[in-house]
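fwd from M.: "can u put these together and see what the complex looks like"

so here's what she sent:
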Amino acid sequence: MRRRLVTSRLPFPAILALRYLWSTRRDAFVTFLSAVALSAITLGVAALILSLAALSGFQHVLRSEILSRTPDVEIELPASTGAAAVTAAERAIRGVEGVVEVQQVIRGRGWLTAAGRVVPAELVGFGGPLPPSFPDPDPAPEAVEDRGGDGLWVSKSLAASWFLEPGDVVDVVSPRPTLTPLGPRPRVRSIRLAGTYAAGKVAEEESAALPLDVAESLFGTGRRELLVDAGGGERALAVAGRLGAVLPDGARVSTWQDLNRPLFFALRLERVFLFLGVSLIVLVAALALLADLALIIANKRQDVGMLLTLGSTPERLRRAFLLLGTLLALGGTALGTGIGVSLAVLFDRLHLLRLPGDVFFVEYVPFLVRPGDLVLILTVTLALAMAASFYGAHKAAALDPVEALRR
Amino acid sequence: MSVSLEARGLVKTYRDGERRVEVLKGADLAVSPGEMVAIVGPSGSGKSTLLHLLGGLDRADSGRVTVGGEDLSALSAKELAGFRNRTIGFVFQFHQLLPDFTALENVMLPGRIAGWVPRRALERARSLLAEVGLEAREDHFPSQLSGGERQRVALCRALALDPPLLLADEPTGNLDPASGARVLDLLLALQERHGTTGVLVTHNPEVAGRCAKVAVLDEGILKPRDPALRGP
């Protein structure tokens, strides 16, 4: 095998790099330092992959959770828009290409009270299907309609803590006063419970859905919005761009991106800082590689002198040592990638890292390895390693042959 | 193939902190094609420095070295490297074999550096090692060879590209008398057989006496025992 290397058609720098890579094992200290550098790169790459995969997993679950409760497009109409104008706008939106469904909602804040208990809540009056922010309804809304009416939808957790069953009466109180002979009093509507929905663990306050006409009586028509279902993702963004032509002046169109912009920015920032922080491991590994190469080059000083004497150019020697460093880095990177990806897949498939359900919104740490992350990790690692190798290679090439040959 | 070698007014000074050490103070040398010239002098007289200048491993502060009509000072670093590879063979006191390569691979190195196809470098290396009686040791590493065998391999490496000029710096200085004598016999025989021009640096007058001509490096000046070595 040794003979095949020198008699191969590989370029001379490659022959030198591969032979020195093979021969490092004969010097115990060089072997040790090479193993340290290799291990450090392996560890750094694996740590980066696992960290980013865990973060991506969490963020994916969080985004899915939030996006499932976010309308594709939300249109806020001016307060002066009358009911007829809203209906006309709704009709016009249905005619826009890509629109799947449109519904009116009225939002307000108030209280829910039953059996002596009171809780503040965001109240959403809706017409048509339950809005996206009220997922997993129980029982199915069609079953409720079959029983002959609309009703109130509260979170499963509230229903459980208040021992509410479908059909129980809940009072919905609005801060918008009504004038009575006894003076202004808050508006109250008693509504039968239609069912419950699954509130996300990220939700911080109660929300409840109620029929549109009831919401109108409680809050007036001030905060009327139109929620548009446009098939999600990029399609929704495209549809949003077409809505402006059919909406009245003053209407504000917000896509799912706009509604979650601060969150998405925070998630991106989180990724950046995590990447930068964990990349420090790779930086340290690159420094270990630099030290390893420096030792190898110091050991090969006389070789370098002789090769220059034989007519090799400094440039070829630089390439040889750069290739040597790159090969070491590639080895560590490949090992680290294998370990990192394997562990991430294993942890995710087998749900090995469990989390307390009452604290986290997931029951296990999800791992999601994104190809883009892998490419970034490999690029950064190899770039750092090559930068470290370049210094040593440059020093080797700059050796004076006469000085290098001295014993 | 052989070439002429000429050095005119070579001056080389080294700095040792504040001190300036003038090693060569205008050395002149002329070697005819195919001749073997010995340069003698005590330790520290600048023999190795002179050899390095003759071989283009170092540049003189002033003066000129011409090999086969080529002025080394006019060559760029890259051109000088190529020139050394094609034209000059070096043999050093401490063999300077690459320890991670076998005897055969060491002798192949000049050919691989020159861009020879591997088969050509291999056949040339095998032929040279056979010429010095080391064909059975071609796959041994330098650590597995004796001192004399290492120096013979070094000699083969120096002659790998059939260079017209051979420069030897104390080639037997690290060997026992018997091995040294064998290596010297071999060096001179190969030099004569291949018609190579040669300069051999030594502090040993007996070794110098085996060469066709001898020059003495004294006080930074070459004083040939043979006046013809001074050149016109």
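replying to her w this: Chain B touches chain A through 37 residues (CB under 8 Å).
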